[in-house]
Fold each of these.
Amino acid sequence: MNRDYDVIVIGAGAAGLAAALGASQAGASVLVIEADRQVGGSSRLSGGHFYAAGTSVQRDAGVANDSAEAMFEHYMTLNQWLVEPSVVRRYCDLSAPTFEWLKGLGVEFRPEGVYRSGVSSVPRGHRPEGGGARIVEVLHGHLGDRNVDVVFNTRANELIADASGRINGVRAGDDVATCGAVILSTGGFGANPGLLQQHYPQAARAGNWSWYIGTPFAQGDAFAMAQALDADLAGHDRGLLLVTPGFSRDLEVLLPGWLVMVNATGHRFADETSPYTVLGGLIEREGGHAFAVFDEAARAAARPSPISQAYWVNDVLARKADEGRIARADTLEALALRIGADPAVLAGTIARYNADCVRGVDSVYFKEAASGMRPIVSPPFYAAELRPAIICWTGAGLRIDADTRVLRRDEAFIPGLYAAGETVGSLHGDRYIGGGGSYGPCVVFGRLAGTTAAAYVQALVD
Ligand SMILES: Cc1cc2nc3c(=O)[nH]c(=O)nc-3n(C[C@H](O)[C@H](O)[C@H](O)COP(=O)(O)OP(=O)(O)OC[C@H]3O[C@@H](n4cnc5c(N)ncnc54)[C@H](O)[C@@H]3O)c2cc1C
């Protein structure tokens, strides 16, 4: 029993704060080590949407009969069962109870904030009042009343194990704290170009178009700390990339409906207004880039709108064409040659699309006419390259079991080591389940890691 703390949590984002509170509520003494001068990490910057099934707020919103089973089925089908079912199942089972716990702590979710996030037919996205920052504030606030210390400006760099391999301490530079168990919740690695190259090559392939929207502390420190103990990894090359023309570092989530998106050959391949959860993946399948085609009439009419203030605006488009960043030509055939597409294919694609515009129906990809569909007829014609390049979160990380225990490559557990949040790689598939599908599991597995680690420490015989 001679240790500084029962549980040490490394990283104080949503996952780490939920872990600290979970462990403390289960009776453990807790130290939280945070590299930044404040709590919150990317969670503080986030919308904080929470993807969950079977909640009281869904019921208040008139969404009856949703369930963990239905959520699991959708999650696994969307990802062709290429994710670990036991981990996904635990998330689905605990999503509603953890959501209610968060609500009980004081985070407000209104029925109006329940929406269809991603591509599921059931509304499971829950928008919190005050966004991710409010969730961080509430979780952090509750720690103040408990047996939890938080140290800031301290970057943990090593996990310490005893002779039997049991984790019993953490080093941060010259400082060491001892404990019965450690929870790694250092977030993702979106701010670390070297790790992106290694674990999320899709994002790295976007080159200097790629940028991360979260905290600069998302350096993926958990990789080195846990891999020194032979920890296994999962989720290679997974994460969420938003599509951008790369003109600036503005966060825009959707494309306007008046664009026509074609692949490198000149074929259309998707509804241009597809949810952001799938659009990046669709472009990735086309080789990692595509082109947004439009005509002079569309360019001239392009005004700032709720979905675009920075990119798809008439003067910006004219300037980018002048700079050579957008291809411009007097005929579609000439435009095709400028972008390396097949002239006959591009002309045929646009002819078919224009005919659909006249009929008012996208007969191939079902884009809603009301999204702004318009024929492409007035020269000059334009093509702006698009890439999935804005990194929202990273999906590769430590492999855990359904109780958040960190697994070694030989499938054994590293005793006393737990992980939660973006640090974990076992949860996400090639397709993002929907808005709230990253923050939700951070809180779910954070709290679970806290309670599981506390129980482990209580059972230790020193
Ligand atoms: C702008 C934005 C909007 C988003 N919107 C949504 C959304 O609406 N819904 C959704 O599901 N997802 C969303 N996401 C993604 C989601 O918010 C994140 O995946 C989630 O918040 C990550 O939480 P986390 O606790 O794992 O990591 P973080 O919140 O990043 O916390 C990790 C913490 O660990 C600290 N740390 C790192 N290394 C060390 C170290 N060595 N020692 C000590 N401390 C360390 C960091 O400083 C940080 O405070 C969004 C992300 C961003 C950036």
Amino acid sequence: MAKLALRVNGAVREIESDDPDVPLLYLLRNDLGLSGTKFGCGLAQCGACTVLVDGRAVRSCNAPARAVVGQDVVTIEGLGSDDRPDPVQSAFIAEQAAQCGYCTAGMVMTARALLAHTPRPSEQQVREALAGNLCRCGSHARVIRAVLRAAAQGGR
Ligand code: FES
Ligand code: FES
């Protein structure tokens, strides 16, 4: 049984697992109850499980939890709140950039990582950044508008 101390949304959380390669996604959802991060494919193919690790967009289904010990993990729950949404979240609401919402947390986290290092991306840069985030509902056009809206409003 291995004990892992993960820093998630600003707090250190200690979790035990008997799987040395347990994916970060499983601990976030099953042990910490952070179900905003979704399990889509489990194969690093869809982006639904994207979280931030030291500001980088990481697919948590494909990241061993032990590999992020000592780094800052941020999930959608840690990005903003109902009262104080992150500018990317506000822009997604303004553009109604979701239908079922299953892909949305991953889209938002990927966009957040993009805007942190490229605050005023071109539409092409937004498209490229989100190319690996799949939306089965076909919300892509509105997602791209939302990210451009957040950027135009200084959404760092
Ligand atoms: S669930 Fe991780 S990329 Fe699809
Ligand atoms: S809004 Fe349904 S998968 Fe994207």
